[in-house]
Amino acid sequence: MTIISVPYHQDEQLAPDHLPLAGDVTVEVPFGEATDRRHRLVQVQAAVAAAVAGAGPDPTVVSGDCLVALGVVAGLQRAGLDPGVVWFDAHGDVHTTASSTSGYLGGMALRWLVGADPELVTGPLGLRPLPEERAVLVDARDLDPAERDYLRTAGIAHRQVAALSAADLPEGPLLLHVDVDVIDAAEVPGLRFPVPGGPGGDTVLDALRRVLATGRVAALHIACPWHPATGQDGPVRARLLAALAALR
User: Fold this and answer.
1) pLDDT tens digit string along 22-57?
2) Smallest Cα–Cα separation from 9: which of 55, 44, 47?
């Protein structure tokens, strides 16, 4: 198993200690004089896709946001796989540029994977959109009205962490995506978008083990959208990432 570290939040390069888990490969993007944000985002995801495609079987990718899942899926596709996605997150991440009131791009990552706004990142990246029925959204306890409206009629399945079973998963190879904010905010310090009332870390780990036990997880993506560490944040985060990486 190869651990790929992607120290970026969108197109912002993060400090070396932001992701306290040693990687075998670290993605670095030479932006040069590029200032167009969309172009920079595509560059980050293209570098991730290349790293995943060249990593061999079962890579674990650790990054600063959920958008990196786009590059992971593109990399798996380049390696000849047709993955579905199991998306653990406190948020829905199913906004589009038209529906989002905040404009935060990380809140669009799953929706982009299933084909929305292709002109921005996924089209230039060469990512083939996933059918909605190939995606399972797990938890998503914090949904905006537009996201609720979309999920009512979308083919994306919506499940709770404790109840998730192998029967809920799409067939074939899987990307297992875990935004650490799926865990109750009291257990994960310094999150950018903390959401209280979530499942505990042990409950999340148990659910992830059930997915991994299928033997169909082609890649694990751990997204860490948190602020720079202060005080004892660093050791707590390091233990969490070590526990997640050890699942493989």
Assistant:
1) 989 999 999 877 689 999 999 999 999 999 999 999
2) 44
- Structure-block tokens of residue 176: 């297992």
**Angle between helix 68-78 and helix 37-53 axes, rounded to 10 deg:** 40
Q: Domain residues for 28?
A: 3-245
Asked whether the beta carbons of 63 and 149 are under 8 A apart, the reply is: no
Q: 247 by DSSP, 3-state: which?
A: coil
- Retrieve residue 107's tokens: 């809140």
- Give CA separation, 4 vs 115, 153, 163, 233, in Å: 25, 35, 30, 22
DSSP per-residue string spanning 94-106: ---TTT-SS--GG
Three-state DSSP state, 124 = helix
- Cβ-contact 176, 155 below 8 angstroms: no
Q: With contact defined as beta carbons under 8 Å apart, do 11 and 217 qualify?
A: no
Could you give the count of Cα atoms lying within 13 Å of 110 in the half-sphere of its Cβ? Answer: 35
Query: What CATH number does residue 164 fall under?
Result: 3.40.800.10
Query: Rounded to two decimals, what is the model's pTM?
Result: 0.97
Q: φ, ψ for residue 42 (rounded to 5)? A: -65, -40
Number of domains forming the structure of the chain? 1
| CA–CA dist 248, 241 (Å, integer) | 12
